[in-house]
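User: Can you fold this complex?
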Amino acid sequence: MSGSVVIAGLGPGNDALVTPEVAAALDKATDIVGYIPYVARVAPRAGLTLHPSDNRVEIDRSRHALEMASEGKHVVVVSSGDPGVFAMAAAVLEAVEHGDPVWRDLDIKVLPGITAMLAAAAACGAPLGHDFCAINLSDNMKPWALIDKRLRLAAEADFAMAFYNPRSKSRPEGFGKALKALQEACGDARPMIFARNVSRPDQTIKIVPLTDVTEDMADMRTVVLLGNSQTRIIERDGAPLIYTPRSVDG
Ligand SMILES: C[S@@+](CC[C@H](N)C(=O)[O-])C[C@H]1O[C@@H](n2cnc3c(N)ncnc32)[C@H](O)[C@@H]1O
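Assistant: Here's the predicted assembly.
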């Protein structure tokens, strides 16, 4: 069995943020598997077959990739950002664990990419400069009660936070509920950052006090960051700089 599966992160959108390691894996691939808009980021060429698929078929897509690798193909499964952050790496490994035992003998590698929260943080300074956590606000794969609990405990522990999948057409009310929980648990006007289409030509960064945010400020192209209670804003001409100090007194 000489095929392989590489699960690769394409970064947040700008080709300059695709790592050389990922670019080399794409160059060697015989087959690319992934969600339609991510596969569209890979240039077609002779000898390369593209297999775009819809969003909610992660396990089917993973099995397909593993089956092709079992036949000797060199498959790259693409994700945006980093493949281990709310993306395909865990899905492929879940398929390996529960699938055909021969898949365990395949050459399987995960190649990191620049995840949206890190590109967004860099675009406005260093809001994740101290301890932080990342929470997926979609309740497609976990109950809302668990999201609410994690939001409140993260606020209590004074983590800075990053929120992925904040609001979609099929989940219009979730982000409003998350904001309510955060406003109650934080009780202050720390900055919330709405970073949309980060690293792309139409990137926007909006910084809004937590007390003033509204649910319509985020969509599925937005990653949302929230400072901790110590996060600072440096006002200056042009866009402010935001940072969370690296040290905490006491
Ligand atoms: C299914 S998650 C995938 C995350 C991806 N694996 C990563 O590491 O960035 C999709 C969510 O990532 C965030 N996201 C991905 N790319 C982004 C970008 N360029 N700008 C802003 N948010 C982005 C959004 O919150 C979006 O709803």
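The CA atoms of residues 62 and 93 lie 8 Å apart. The first helix runs from residue 20 to 28.
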